[in-house]
Amino acid sequence: MGRGHQGQGHGILWTIGFGGALFGLFAMVACGPGEAPTPTPTATSVAKVATPSPTATAVPTPTPGPKRGGILNRFNFTDTKKGTMDPNVETSARDVLLVSSNFNQLLRYDPATSGLVPDLAKSWKISADGKSIAFTLRDDAKFTDGTPVTPEDVVYSLRRIVGELGASATNTRIGPSLKQVWSGAEVTGANEVTVKTTAPSSMFLGQLGSAWVKIVPKHVLDATEKKTFTTGATPVGAGPFKLTKWQRDVVVEQERYQGYVTSFGEGLPYLDGMRTYIIKDSSAQIAAIEGGQVDLWPRYQTLDASQGKAVKSFLGDKVIVGQYPEAGFMVLHLNTKRPVFQDPRVIKAMWVAMDRKGLNNVVFEGSLIIGAIVDPDVFQDAALPLSEVYSYPGIKEPDYALAKKLLADAGYPDGVELEMIIQNSGWVQDASQVLIAGFAKAGIRVKPAVVDVAAAQARLDARLFDLGYVFVGGFDTPQPLEPFLASWMTGASRNHSESSDPKLDQMIKDAAATLDPKQRNRSIQDIQRYLYSNMSNGTVPLGVPKDILAQRTYVKGYVPSLTYVDGAMFDTTWLDR
Amino acid sequence: MHEYIIKRLLLIVPTLVGCSLLVFFVMKIVPADYVDAAFAAELSGTPAERQETLARLRAEVGLDKPAIVQYWRWVSGFFTGNCAESLMLQRSVCTILKERVVPTAEIAIGSIVILVSWAVPVGVLSAVRQNSFADYAARVLSISLLSIPAFWLAILVLLALLVFTGTGPPLQYVHIWDDPLANLSKMIWPILVLALHEGAPIARITRSQMLEVIRADYIRTAHAKGLGERAVLLRHALRNTLIPVLTFSGWRLAGLLGGTVIVEFVFNVPGIGSAIYLAIGARDYIMLGSLVLFITLIFLVLNLVVDVLYSVIDPRIRYGSAA
Questions:
Q1: Per-residue DSSP letters for A267-280?
Q2: How far apart are CA A75 and CA A97, in angstroms?
Q3: Are B309 and B242 in contact (CB under 8 A)?
């Protein structure tokens, strides 16, 4: 049966031809349309931090001709962690992107200016001693169940955040920060709430304006055992949008809340609603924005350079892809409890041997501000000029000779051997490889320990590392003192290196207590000088990253905020189509 | 035969118990637990405050209990009908399974139907037209599809949709009984990817089996008796060819019912495969263990079905004490 060996020669030629055609088809699809010359990223203007005004009442002028209507389609990487829409329970930045727009705040950060603006509060006044803030509230705000938002709700919400209503209801993200100077909150008038602190704090007002500080209905939560919204429950809030559909791990749909009022603007929100898909895979995420199924990339996670180029190349003029400043910092933690790091010369050797330039060239394609802790573009008065930062050895370019000398002086003429945790996510692995290659040139032989995200975090917390993974910390509020409070203070939550420097601690505390912004900024600069000139701290700055984000050109009124979370209200966003 | 089937069914129980112990043990020895994975990175405060919060969170989900207690709480739910709650989704794992098995089953069954429809005929054609253009074309196709990883094929399909239609498949999964068109417009793509990818080895197996069978004496006899080619193929050759194809298909169907992680992720299908991947990352031993048990059960049952079907296809095969 069959034709046996007949036509075998022709058969082979046909095979080659067919195989070639098949390959060509794959190649054509894989390569896609010819890559257009990549235009210069057209980021919106860099938001410069405005000096917070205690009595700010200005209503921002909307962009000419905001159109009402339409549904904004977006996506999030995950659904909320505990299956609630409770802003105190769902505290990761990704959760906030889902939860935020259901609730309003006393005051908040305007993503366009990064300044504090009123929301539920019409105005506020700080006392002369800096230890109390009196908020005058709007009297026309209502929750989605029709009940008015009262000063009692505000006091309840704040007390819940700092943990006065039980551990389960505490906001574990912003609560500890507020608690540091928290004294109490009380209703002090028909529409007035006064918040008191134990000491003056330059950070406190900004922390009250963070996207984690949401106003919730006392009458709803007091009726629950744990004072939280229960799993799957529709939240009752007074934010610009209200939840209408929630299919766990699939989609969240919201519609415009007609009763929304804010001191931030009139007649908001412009949109009819939002639809947020949960998309976990990066290919699917890119396809969603390229295919027009979502309108913007979420603030939380940057596109990498090649992804940004691909999206721009595919969509051309239909999309804005730009680099945006991020209120964040990138560091490497050295476990200062390890014997090798007891000698400050070894720590300094690590500081100067870090190939930040290579990192910027290879991984970040020029978008990293090498060596900086505070972004000089955003926090000009608080950041050190880059010329000064680069005057310190080993910051702009690694100084391997100095590193070797330091190690030899410390008793390690043949170098040292260390282990580095590496999270197995794309750019972190790449960044780690660049650093490891650089360290090798200084005689620092680093063995990589690649683990998944959960294991990496567990090892970091348990201090089971010599070198931690390349760590990017996002600010909770766009205040330049944040990274120092979070990462360089003794015992701070992100001080994984367990560095302890009493002088540095005092400098940071003094800066936090300084209410005069100019003086405070000078203090912040002094803190940076101290870190760079000593290079003895185990939390080593790598630089300040910029994020690459994309949004369709018809999305107007949306500015990616400096922090991951401050732009998640979407009440000024509108669609020009 | 009945004895054999009953014995196999009874063996399922100890197999599942062993499997549950294994997966639980593995989840307990890997670094980090659910609370570490979900919350540790987001907590502020002093180390003491963080540890207190982590301890509270562990107590809330029972991770502070001894391992044996945690194990029993998980498995006992299957006997009482009150299934344990997934740590990361805070719902009964049985409910989650019921929701997620539907899209996965749709992909699995759809892929099997399509792959059998193309792979078996292609394999047969390739064999009976050995060394012809059709044979070479079929072999190039099957080897190419075998070599291309499913995830890459999935991304390629996604890209092709973007390039040629300007949009991707729908992002939201809708049940076929709610909106058949919306469902099919989303699900046809993962089904197609898996049908192509999983069909390649079946085409290869069918071809090699058919080549062996058509050279057998009884086939020559059938021809000598004057039977046409079609009759010889369908009535004699194909039946014997299908035995290993059946084994492989059954095994693959079980695998597909267990969910194909990457394809579900790429096409945003809320199925079992994506749930397994998420459960591993989240260290949700309850969800992961339950899904693994489910997949194990599928494998065991399908293997039994395949073995029984053998005896239907090939009357020489008999099980039990009479075999």
A1: S---SSEEEEEE--
A2: 10
A3: no
Which tens digits make up the pLDDT trace of B12-45? 999 999 999 999 999 999 889 999 999 988 888 8
Q: Which residue has the tokens 């200062």?
A: A336
d(CA A328, CA A372): 10
Pair B154, B168: CB distance under 8 Å: no
Q: Reply yes or no: is the peptide bond before residue A545 cis, omega within 30 of 0.
A: no
CB A148 within 8 A of CB A142: yes
pTM of the model: 0.88
| DSSP code per residue over A415-445 | -EEEEEEEESSHHHHHHHHHHHHHHHHTTEE
Which residue among A2, A14, A167 places its CB closest to the CB of B130? A2
- Asked if A225 contacts A153 with a C-beta cutoff of 8 angstroms, the reply is no
Tokens of A461: 């917390």
Chain A residue with minimum CA distance to B61: A82
CB A539 within 8 A of CB A499: yes
Encode burial over A209-227: b for 16+ CB neighbours within 10 A, e otherwise: bbbbbbbbbbebbeeeeeb
> Coil, strand or helix: which one is A43?
coil
In the three-class reduction of DSSP (H, G, I as helix; E, B as strand; rest coil), residue A548 is classed as strand
d(CA B177, CA B190): 19
How far are the Cα atoms of A47, A104, B22, B109 from residue B301, in angstroms, in the given order? 61, 54, 20, 16
Q: What is the ipTM of this complex?
A: 0.87
- Per CB-CB distance under 8 Å, the chain B contacts of A231 are 90-91
pLDDT band, residue A33 (cuts 50/70/90) = very low
- For B145, residues 6+ apart whose C-beta sits below 8 A from its C-beta are B153, B196, B197, B199, B200
What string of DSSP letters covers A332-401? Answer: EEB-TTSGGGGSHHHHHHHHHH--HHHIIIIISTT-SEET-SS-TTTSTTTSPPHHHHTTSTTTSS--HH
Gap between the Cα atoms of A297 and A134, Å rounded = 38
Of A139, A147, A134, A96, the closest CA to residue A120 belongs to A139
**DSSP class per residue in B124-180:** HHHHHTTTSHHHHHHHHHHHHHHHS-HHHHHHHHHHHHHHHHSS-S-SS---TTT-H
Backbone angles phi, psi at A27, to 5 degrees: -65, -40
Which strands sit side by side in the sheet containing A241-247, from one edge to the other? A71-76, A273-278, A251-256, A241-247
The whole-angstrom separation of Cα B187 and Cα B191 is 6
What is the DSSP secondary structure assignment for residue A553, as one 8-state letter? Answer: T
Q: For residue A414, which amino acid is it?
A: D
For chain A, helix, strand, coil in percent to 5 are 30, 20, 50
Q: Across the A/B interface, how many CB contacts are shorter than 8 Å?
A: 191
Mean pLDDT of chain B: 88
- The nearest CA of chain A is from the CA of B307 a distance in Å of 31
How many other CB atoms are found less than 10 A from the CB of residue B178? 8
Residues of chain A with C-beta less than 8 angstroms from the C-beta of B274 = 280
The pLDDT, as a whole number, for residue B4 is: 83
User: Each residue of A300-357: pLDDT tens digit?
Assistant: 888 988 899 999 999 999 999 999 999 999 999 999 999 999 999 999 999 999 999 9
Contacts (Cβ under 8 Å, ≥6 apart) of A48 = A113, A114, A378, A380
Task: Calculate the average pLDDT of chain A.
Answer: 89
pLDDT confidence tier of residue A32, bands split at 50, 70 and 90: very low
Q: Say if residues B41 and B322 touch (Cβ distance below 8 Å).
A: no
Q: Is A67 left (phi over 0), alpha (psi -120 to 50) or beta?
A: beta
**A293 contacts in chain B (CB < 8 Å):** 167-168, 170-171
Distance CA A86, CA A171 (A): 10
Q: What is the DSSP string of A1-23?
A: ---TTTTHHHHHHHHHHHHHHHH
